Amino acid sequence: MRDPLSVLTEAFTSFLFGKVETTRLPVRTSTGQAQAVYLPTAAPGLGDSGVIIGREVYSGKGYIYDPFQLYGQQLPAPHWLVLGESGNGKSALEKTYVLRQLRFRDRQVVVLDAQGEDGVGEWNLIAQELGITPIRLDPMVANDDGIRLNPLDPSITTTGQLALLRTIIEVAMGHGLDERSGFALKVAHAHVNEHITDRQPILTDIVEQLRHPEAESAEAMNVDIDDVRAWGLDVALVLDRLVDGDLRGMFDGPTTVGIDLDAPLIVFDLSHIDRNSIAMPILMAIVGVWLEHTWIRPDRKKRIFLVEEAWHIINSPFVAQLFQRLLKFGRRLGLSFVAVVHHLSDVVDGAAAKEAAAILKMASTRTIYAQKADEARNTGRVLGLPRWAVEIIPTLTPGIAVWDVNGNVQVVKHLITEKERPLVYTDRAMTESSPADPELEWETEQRAILVEQQMNAQMNDSSQSTVA
C-alpha cells in the first residue's frame, strides 16, 4: 500500500503542474513483431489502370503508368523523356512498354529505330514477332527495291510540302533560308504542283524547276529571270543530294505502295544511316512531317511516337521547331511522344537550346537511369528533381530508374516477363545489357509468371472499354 503522504504529494503536484507521465518499462520483442508498431509508409502511386512497368523499390507496390489514362488528371501533357547511360535498361523499358501498350485495342505505335546489328534495326525481332515488315530507309539502295517516302506526296498538304522542303534545306545548310532563296523555292514548288497532275510530283521536278525557272515566276515579282535562277541555285544543290547524291534512293520518287499505316506497329529502320551525319536530322524531319500528314488522324486512336537517338531532333533548331509543332498538334489527337536520350547535356548545351527547353517542358514524364554524379546533378537542376533523387541516380543498378511523373517521384524497378525476355534482349553486348548479365536477372521465374498473369488480366479488363 502506498504511503498516504506520497499520494497527497502526487495529487498536489498534478494539480499545480498537470498529470505526471508514467514511466513504462522496456519491452523485449522481435523485429518481426515490432514492425507492426511503426507501420511503413509510401508515396501514392499513379492508380491501377494502365500498363504495368514494374514495382516501386521502397514500398514493393506494383507501378502502373499510362499517359492516356493520366492525361488531364495528373499529367498536363502525355509526352515522355527517357535518360540514362547505355547498359542500364532503357532499351528494355522501351520495348516492353510498346509490347504492353499494343495489348490495348486502340493503340498504335511508330518507332524510329536508329540503332541496329547484323544489318537490321534492333526492333526487327519484335516486328517479326508481330508479323510486320520494318520500313528500311537505306541510301545505298538506289533502285526500285528500296523504300521511298515522297516529300511531295499528295497526302501532304501544299503548305506542309513547302514547310518540309524548307526544313530539309535549312537542316542541310545549317542556317535559315533568306528571302530570295525562299522565294525561288516557293515559285518552283507552286509551278510543279500546278503543272504536274498526271503523277506524283517528285523532288527531281523541284530541282529542275529551280535550275530553269519559268519567265512568269520572275514577272510576278518584276525581277529578272537570271536573278530567280541565281537565288535558287543553292537550294537546288541541297535537294540534289536527295536526288543524285549520298541520300538518293529514299525520297527521290513516289511513295512506295504498300506501306501499312494502319498496322499496330510501324518501324522506320534507320540503322543503315550514319548517326553522326547530317543525313539523320534530315531523315527525322522528313519522317516527322510525313507522319504528321499521313498518320495522325482524328479517329480516337491513341498513338505513340517513339524516337531513339532523339538528340538528332532536339539538337537541330529547325527539326526541333518542326517536332515542337507536332507535339502541340498531336496532343489534341491523342499522341504521346517518347524521346530517348543518353545525356541531357547533348541537347541543353546544343545549338537548339531554346527549342530543346520547350520540348523538355512538354515532357511531363521523365525517367532517369544511372548517370555519373556530375551529369546527375545537371539533370536534376534542369528537370527540377528533388535532392534525394539526384543523390541516388549515380547509385542506381541496371533496370532501376527514377520516375518523375509531373512531380510524383518514385524509384521503380522494371520487370520483364519470360515471354518478353527473348524479344527485348538481343546480341547488343557492347551497348545495352544482355540477358546473361546477372544484375538483370531481377526476378525469379515464378514472379515473372505472376506479373505476366496480372498484366494479362488487367489488359483484358481495360480493353473492354475505350480509354478516355
Q: Biggest sheet, open or closed, and with what strands and sense?
A: 11 strands, mixed
Distance between the termini: 73 Å
The CATH homologous superfamily of the domain at 47-68 and 82-135 and 272-362 and 411-433 and 450-460 is named P-loop containing nucleotide triphosphate hydrolases
Strand order of the largest sheet: 2-1-13-12-11-3-10-9-4-8-7
What structural class do the secondary elements suggest? alpha/beta
Ranges with pLDDT <50 over ≥5 residues?
427-452, 462-468
Q: Please indicate the percent range of residues in DSSP E strands (runs of 2 or more).
A: 5-15%
Total DSSP helices: 20
The first-level CATH class name of the domain at 47-68 and 82-135 and 272-362 and 411-433 and 450-460: Alpha Beta
Overall mean pLDDT stands at 80
> What CATH architecture label of the domain at 47-68 and 82-135 and 272-362 and 411-433 and 450-460 applies?
3-Layer(aba) Sandwich
Please give a structural write-up:
By secondary structure, this protein is an alpha/beta fold. Among the domains are: 201 residues, Rossmann fold (3-Layer(aba) Sandwich), CATH 3.40.50; 87 residues. Helices cover 42% and strands 13% of the residues. It has 20 helices and 13 strands. The strands form 2 sheets. Strands 2-1-13-12-11-3-10-9-4-8-7 form an 11-stranded mixed β-sheet. A two-stranded antiparallel ribbon has the order 5-6. A hairpin with a 5-residue loop joins strand 1 and strand 2. Helix 8 packs antiparallel against helix 11. The longest helix has 18 residues.
